[in-house]
């Protein structure tokens, strides 16, 4: 009589106990005579005997079928052995090192065998890493492993309100992950959609113990680089969208939209505030830091219709660079600024100007608008940034005259140096004749005092009542020489207007003999700068004459207005 053993009868398997009685509705374990540490480490094989005494087995089709026993689900092979570990859809255990990649189910260790669902952290041999790795997997309620079976590199799935990515092996992705095919599109060598050099190909998932994709949120990380150990898979074969930045291991702020795509090359409103993000493209356009949030004072080439950032000319303008821009001093940044101006294809929809995104990227980074004070290298500058409209125009440093109180260039207020006391400024009117900061086409240029002193074309000369030689520049004549536009409304057709500002940037309304740091004197009438002389006594010596800049003479008179061509204009200012 058979006791304590399995008994086969045709295609059925039974188990009889020590009394030779067939067991029912119970688990039976039998020593595994074929135990192998690599392919079959089980010390025992487990069987489950049904109420009729027959062991559960895989169906004739071989399809993996699960049975519910004591609230858990188990599967068995064709001989009735409980399956464990990685199992395919044909009731076969997957035992080679890489077989788990194509397996369908995971049934735990040999002394467990229950079908796993939800999140499971499992040790496997990773061929890509050539090492044993602990990866996260997720199994559906039917026990099937989630994995990517599409054309993209990963499959994204929403689980408990958060989105996760799984590769074609079923491994949960983490950190920087290619969301589309890596490499160039063979059908179009210029296309970057599927290139690792494009932000559009990447998504950022949290660390390996979280894995949820960043969605509609900020994150600060180093850009993807396989040497930084911050990419899910290595060996993608080319530089990423911010290779040099990543190589320096510099952390940057990024923002992902609802689809996990990184904002790139745009000014965007986020929770009521506006932020700027670096563009992709050529090196000059800033793709070495593509997608990174801008901060500080930056010089940008922007599409003023869409808010697209075409080019980041300088991502950290310092005091010296700002002064070079405002003073039109030949320098690296001034040259790049001029190049950007020359690159404008449509002046009606493109502009180059300064923007300010706060002084601390970790605590701020939001665009500043309206009147703003900026401190650079210990120097204080006053700015005015456009405060109306949407991302297409908001935040742009404005150029022109603000209510005849201040003059701005690229948003920076023109102020005289403390030693100079006063600063002459030329404002070229827009095509409509306006000089206002909100009109397109207005330009501003600081005028050096030495250039006025050395102007022999518009000079005046006389001997005053103190028998002193007086020289100067008739700035009204200089203004006339810059040309006129008959299309301008009003009596004054001059293309250029000249103004005088003090150390606070205030436009001077009416001034007589305002002495500058060189002990020369400015004369202003109703905001219009008219005359610049080396002596404030303009009264003629008896019996002498003075020459105007246009060649006419004055034989008498002691008012400075007598020495300028256009003394009483009321059009330049208020």
Features:
mainly beta; 36 strands; 574 residues; 7% helix; left handed beta-beta-3-solenoid; three-stranded antiparallel sheet; rod-shaped
Summarize the structure.
With 574 residues, this protein is mostly beta strands. It contains five helices and 36 strands.
Structure, described:
By secondary structure, the chain is mainly beta. The protein folds into three domains: 5-145, Ribbon (left handed beta-beta-3-solenoid); 175-447, no CATH class; 451-563, no CATH class. Helix content is 7%, strand content 32%. It has five helices and 36 strands. A hairpin with a 2-residue loop joins strand 22 (370-376) and strand 23.
Rg calculated over all Cα atoms: 40 Å
What is the helix fraction of residues, given as a range? Answer: under 10%
Strands of the widest sheet, in order across it, are 29-30-34-33-32
Whole-number total of structural domains: 3
Largest sheet features = 5 strands, antiparallel
Average pLDDT across residues? 90
How much of the residues is beta strand, in percent? 25-35%
Low-confidence stretches: 182-193
What is the CA–CA distance across the termini? 122 Å
Helix segment tally = 5
Classify the secondary structure makeup into a structural class.
Answer: mainly beta
Number of strands: 36
User: How would you sum up the global shape?
Assistant: rod-shaped
């Amino acid at each position: 009589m058979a006791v304590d053993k399995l008994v086969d009868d045709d295609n059925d398997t039974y188990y009889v106990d020590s009394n030779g009685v067939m067991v029912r509705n119970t688990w039976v374990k039998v020593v595994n005579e074929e135990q192998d540490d690599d392919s079959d480490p089980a010390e025992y094989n487990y069987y489950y005997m049904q109420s009729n005494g027959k062991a559960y087995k895989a169906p004739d089709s071989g399809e993996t079928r699960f049975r519910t026993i004591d609230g858990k689900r188990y599967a068995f092979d064709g001989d009735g052995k409980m399956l464990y570990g990685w199992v395919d859809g044909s009731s076969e255990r997957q035992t080679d090192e890489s077989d788990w990649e194509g397996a369908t189910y995971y049934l735990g260790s040999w002394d467990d065998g229950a079908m796993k669902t939800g999140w499971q952290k499992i040790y496997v041999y990773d061929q890509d890493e050539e090492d044993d790795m602990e990866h996260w997997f997720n199994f559906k309620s039917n026990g099937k492993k989630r994995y990517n079976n599409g054309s993209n590199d990963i499959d994204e799935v929403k689980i408990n309100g958060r989105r996760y990515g799984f590769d074609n092996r079923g491994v949960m992705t983490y950190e920087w992950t290619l969301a589309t095919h890596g490499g160039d599109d063979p059908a179009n060598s210029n296309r970057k959609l599927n290139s690792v050099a494009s932000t559009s190909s990447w998504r950022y998932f949290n660390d390996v113990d979280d894995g949820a994709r960043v969605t509609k949120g900020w994150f600060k990380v180093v850009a993807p680089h396989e040497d930084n150990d911050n990419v899910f898979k290595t060996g993608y074969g080319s530089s990423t969208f911010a290779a040099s930045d990543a190589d320096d291991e510099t952390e940057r702020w990024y923002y992902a939209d609802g689809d996990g795509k990184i904002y790139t090359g745009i000014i965007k409103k986020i929770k009521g505030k506006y932020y700027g993000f670096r563009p992709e493209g050529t090196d000059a356009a800033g793709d070495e830091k593509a997608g990174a949030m801008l901060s500080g004072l930056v010089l940008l080439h922007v599409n003023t219709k869409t808010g697209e950032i075409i080019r980041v000319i300088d991502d950290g303008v310092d005091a010296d660079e700002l002064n070079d821009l405002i003073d039109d001093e030949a320098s690296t940044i001034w040259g790049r600024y001029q190049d950007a101006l020359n690159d404008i294809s449509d002046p009606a929809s493109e502009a180059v100007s300064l923007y300010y995104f706060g002084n601390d990227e970790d605590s701020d980074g939001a665009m500043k608008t309206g009147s703003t004070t900026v401190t650079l290298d210990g120097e204080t500058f006053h700015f005015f940034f456009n405060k109306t409209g949407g991302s297409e125009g908001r935040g742009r440093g404005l150029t022109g005259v603000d209510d005849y109180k201040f003059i701005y260039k690229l948003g920076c207020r023109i102020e005289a140096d403390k030693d100079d006391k006063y600063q002459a400024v030329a404002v070229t009117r827009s095509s409509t004749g306006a000089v206002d900061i909100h009109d397109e086409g207005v330009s501003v240029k600081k005028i050096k005092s030495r250039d006025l002193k050395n102007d022999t074309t518009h000079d005046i000369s006389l001997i005053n009542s103190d028998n002193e030689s007086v020289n100067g520049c008739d700035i009204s004549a200089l203004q006339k020489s810059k040309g006129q536009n008959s299309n301008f409304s009003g009596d004054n057709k001059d293309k250029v207007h000249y103004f005088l500002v003090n150390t606070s940037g205030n436009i001077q309304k009416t001034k007589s003999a305002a002495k500058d740091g060189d002990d020369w004197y400015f004369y202003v009438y109703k905001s219009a700068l008219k005359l610049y002389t080396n002596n404030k006594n303009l009264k003629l010596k008896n019996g002498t004459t003075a020459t105007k800049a246009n060649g006419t003479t004055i034989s008498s008179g002691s008012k400075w207005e007598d020495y300028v061509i256009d003394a009483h204009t009321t059009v330049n200012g208020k």
